[in-house]
Amino acid sequence: MSSQEHLSSFITIDANSDFNLKNLPYGVFSTADNDKRRIGVAIGEYILDLSAAKEKVFTGPILSPQLHVFDQPTINTLLSLGRPAWQEARKSLMKALNAEEAVLRDDADLRKRAFVKQSDAIMHVPADIGDYTDFYSGRNHAENVGIMFRGKEHALPPNWLHLPIGYHGRASSIVISGTNIHRPNGQTRPNEEQPPVWGPCKLMDFELEMAFFVGPGNELGKPIKIQDAQEHIFGMVLMNDWSARDIQRWEYQPLGPFLAKSVGTTISPWVVTMDALMPFLTDNTRQNPQPLPYLQHSDRYNFDIKLEVALKGDDMRDAKVISKSNFKHMYWSMKQQLAHHTSNGCNMRPGDLCGSGTISGPTKESRGCMVELSWKGTEPIDCGNGITRTFLRDGDEVTLRGYCDNGTYRIGFGTCTGKILPAVGY
Asked: If DSSP states are collapsed to H, E and C, what string results for the chain?
């Protein structure tokens, strides 16, 4: 057990908190009495306002000349500084929040200004997301969906085992947890013998995903090599990529998802850094056939992150957990995703977001979306007390949770929540 595992904070932290001293995730918040957006770090039930505490906390050689990064309304500038700066920041924060350190503990005036209760905060999308890419990197999900729509013999597209498939999503409709999503209107073709029709989506779904924020980018024409990829990955959030399945099925050929996905993508507010996640490394998924050399890496870059999805409808007294999965089921790693994304010379920028794709496990209970859980609507999902679902109804609220636990301590991601509202009249 390392010495860091013995550390405690002067902030009282519940044993079941997602946000202990080993986590220290970043977010952007404001308050009712101060609408300025500030960068903060979650610690227990509180947020440490880095704009208020930066001079006392960040005294290292990299950050002390660049304290302006903590006065920004997003984390983009911090992301651009790279891993040495992120590691120095983590070390400084762990020291400043330690029970044995007086710099914050004994400064009553600073503590009053710098600590905000999470319950009093308004959370915002933490970065200015210039571009958003969603991958399709969970094999269990890809095979299940393929079997449903193409049959077992053609479940995976011929390229799936050779490269991490992805598509460019709509960054403008990425929203923070707690934002309601209106059921989309769109074209569907419920009867293949008839022309398409227009109206509200009837097969509304969630997708259990995670996503990573890109740190330093790369110049146009200069790929990020896989051995360098983790230097460009800052941290992770929970992500629900809402999906209108009937709209998606009609529109996706030949260019892929469009309006069925851009209706909204919800992310959790706290970005858990890769350094905080390193104690939860697990083996990479065995890949067969072996990827091409530019996608090969032997170092572990897969993570044991336990995930669950809870559903609460207007007709339900309590929320019901309907899926339990784990990020470790991903087939393509984040390093492979980033290396492939830039292999053609595509330039990434600080704050870009890359989604994992739906994270389904090998069992029915671990399927990461309703189209899988209900098997295209043929097997209703038991929500308790005789209540069932095949797809989402208006008023349904979906909450994603994720955490890591190695038996010594746990860190978590908080929640990623959204509710489906009725379609807007057209």
From this structure: CCHHHHCCECCCCCCCCCCCCCCCCEEEEEECCEEEEEEEEEECCEEEEHHHHHHHHCCCCCCHHHHHHHHCCCCHHHHHCCHHHHHHHHHHHHHHCECCCHHHHCCHHHHHHHEEEHHHEEEECCCCCCCEEEECCCHHHHHHHHHHHHCHHHCCCCCCCCCCCEEECCHHHEEECCCCEECCEEEECCCCCCCCEEEECCCEECEEEEEEEECCCCCCCCCCCHHHHHHHEEEEEEEEECEEHHHHHHHCCCCCCCHHHHCCEEECCCEEEHHHHHHHEECCCCCCCCCCHHHCCCCCCEECCEEEEEEECCCCCCCEEEEEEEHHHCCCCHHHHHHHHHCCCCCCCCCCEEECCCCCCCCHHHCCEHHHHCCCCCCCEECCCCCEECCCCCCCEEEEEEEEECCCCEEEEEEEEEEEECCCCC
